[in-house]
Structures are given as C-alpha cells and as structure tokens.
Amino acid sequence: MPSSSDKGQTEPLAALVAVLALGIGLSLYVGVLDSTLPFLTSDADVAPIAADALVAEASPFGVVHPPLGAAPDAARPNGHALNATLRTKSRAWHKGPSRLEIADCVTRTVSVRTAPGTVRPGALEVCVWPEQ
C-alpha cells in the first residue's frame, strides 16, 4: 500500500522557478503591449485611455494631490504629447506643453486635496495629440 505522504508535493525550488517564469512572462507581455498600444488604437481612442491612466497615476488612493508632478509624463502615450489641467473652484494646475488645436481633450471628475484634511471636487482635463 503506497504512503499518502508521497503524493501532492512539489519541490520548493521548482515552485519558485515556475513563479519566476510567470512573472517574467507577464512583464514581457505588458512591455510589448504598452509599446504597441499606439498602433492598436485610433487617435480618437488615445485621449480617454491617457486620461484614465493619468487619473490612476495621480490618485493612488482616490485623491489627486496637486501639483501633478511626474504623473502626466508616466501616463503620456508613446508617440503623443500630453497636456493636463487640474481645476478646482478656486485654483488650477497645469502640466505639459501648450496644447495644439488638433488636440483631443477629455475631462474626468476627480477629488483634489487642497490642504491637509481638505478634499474638494475638481476636474482633470487631459489633451493628447500626435508628436511632430
């Protein structure tokens, strides 16, 4: 009669190698997908994608902390320029080059931290156009 302690076990080293291979594979997939995204989408689809990426990058806990810092650079699609404007009722913050007439613009409603413990409603306008 076979022992039940010999069944269902995996070597720890084999499991670690499998997890490492999965991590590397996912990293390569995401890198290739990011570099080909401009070729897969039309110019009309780039602005909403960039706006969603900027909101996710600028508000890790659901609240945007002005100024925008490096978030617009991180959310900028390859081959495109990006201009971001964050507005509250009393203030505005801008980041990026001056937008061109051909820019496609999208606005997202966000929460903005104006002071420690103070959060106000705001609007984040993201404009994207092909680099020249």
Percent range of helical residues: 25-40%
Helical segment count: 3
How can the largest sheet be summarized?
4 strands, antiparallel
Q: How does the helix and strand content classify structurally?
A: alpha+beta
Overall pLDDT score? 85
Radius of gyration: 22 Å
The global form is flat
Secondary-structure element string:
HHHEEEE
Give a verbal description of the structure.
The chain has 132 residues and is an alpha+beta fold. It contains three helices and four strands. The protein has helices spanning 12-40, 43-58, 71-75, and strands spanning 80-87, 92-95, 104-115, 118-130. The chain has a four-stranded antiparallel beta sheet. The N and C termini lie far apart (75 Å). The model has no long low-confidence stretch (mean pLDDT 85).
In short:
By secondary structure, the protein is α+β, with helices and mostly antiparallel strands. Helices cover 38% and strands 28% of the residues.
Task: Outline the secondary-structure elements.
Elements: H1 12-40, H2 43-58, H3 71-75, E1 80-87, E2 92-95, E3 104-115, E4 118-130
Antiparallel strand pairs: 1-2, 1-4, 3-4
